[in-house]
Amino acid sequence: MIAPFTLLFEDDPNPGPGLPSSIRTLYRGDWRLPTIPERRPAIWTNFVVSHDGRIAFNQPGWNGGNAISRNHRHDHWLMEVIRARADAILVGTATLRAARRHRWAPGEVFNWPAFTQLRAAEERPPLPALVILSASGDVPAAAALTSPRDLFLITTAQGAEHARSRHPHLTCLVGTDGQLDLTAAMTTLRQQYGIRTLLSEGGGRTYGSLLAHQLIDEVFLTISPIIVGNPAPPTPPRPGLVEGVAFAPQDPPRLRLISLRRVDDVLFQRAGIVFPTDGKVASFTLEAQ
């Protein structure tokens, strides 16, 4: 087991149920769920980021979050807490390719009975549904796709046709005009499939897509003390926390800090997101994934 976190700040505005006492004891505080919207799931994301805002080294053998967190056990534990409260987990195909053996299942990175018990107490299925975001429908073979769970693909009409030829068990969510419609897909997941809470574990481009559509409620951010840097071309860049979207400087989205915890030199931040009142985005691109 791990030592308790050190709580530095907490001001949780949410009215919903909190964590069981066994988890609160280690977390040194609570995490109350928000009121679940009727039109879409409550959506949060979870990242580990370096001091300079990078989420991956982007080189063979050093491409996952563990390289940034240095396999920090508290980061693993908190990831499991967050997964335990998710009805569905969202990933992009780049994340799926980078972690082909990962199953996105409770207890995968930190096995503790309390996580399974929390899912059962909140009436969630043993495995969260997996939702894949891909405009092209080019979904790689991965261990997560063979697990006994609901599988969804948010894609275009052309992407759906391509994906079904390789993965006929995927439920494809396509916009009414045949294009990728992230907002409509979230409505469908909530209203037709009963997905109340959704965790995004995609990369910076997936996070950018959710931000551009104002579909994020909270962000969990583990801030690692390491410095990653970013090489000069032609070496491939190392991705940042948000990619593929740029916000107008007059009124960008901002965070409202909910809690801050510390373990050694690692900080654990939880925050809500306040979006611009006009909803303007300077530029946004969703490349085929």
Quickly describe the structure.
The chain is of the alpha/beta class and 289 residues long. Helices cover 24% and strands 24% of the residues. It has a single domain (39-284), classed as Dihydrofolate Reductase, subunit A (3-Layer(aba) Sandwich), CATH 3.40.430.
Written overview of the protein:
With 289 residues, this protein is of the alpha/beta class. The protein has a single domain (39-284), classed as Dihydrofolate Reductase, subunit A, CATH 3.40.430. Helices cover 24% and strands 24% of the residues. The strands form 2 sheets. Strands 1-10-11-8-2-7-3-4-5-6 form a 10-stranded mixed beta sheet, sandwiched between helices. Strands 9-12 form a two-stranded antiparallel ribbon. The longest helix has 12 residues, at 73-84. The chain starts with 5 loop residues before the first strand and ends in a 5-residue tail after the last strand. The model has no long low-confidence stretch (mean pLDDT 93).
Structural class determined from secondary elements: alpha/beta
> How do the strands line up in the largest sheet?
1-10-11-8-2-7-3-4-5-6
Q: Gap between N and C termini, in Å?
A: 38 Å
User: Based on the structure given, which CATH architecture is correct?
Assistant: 3-Layer(aba) Sandwich
Uncertain regions spanning at least 5 consecutive residues: none
Q: Report the CATH C-level class.
A: Alpha Beta
Domain count: the total is: 1
Number of helices: 8
CATH fold-level name = Dihydrofolate Reductase, subunit A
Please trace the helix and strand order, writing H or E for each element.
EHEHHEHHEEHEHEHEEEEE
**The CATH homologous superfamily:** Dihydrofolate Reductase, subunit A
What does the largest sheet look like? 10 strands, mixed
- Global outline: globular
Task: Please count the beta strands (DSSP E, at least 2 residues each).
Answer: 12
Cα radius of gyration in angstroms: 18 Å
Instruction: Report the β-strand fraction as a percent range.
Output: 15-25%
Helix content: 10-25%
Mean pLDDT: 93
InterPro entries: DHFR-like_dom_sf, RibDG_C, Riboflavin_Biosynth_HTPR
Keywords: NADP, Oxidoreductase
GO molecular function, one term: 5-amino-6-(5-phosphoribosylamino)uracil reductase activity
Protein name: Bifunctional deaminase-reductase domain protein
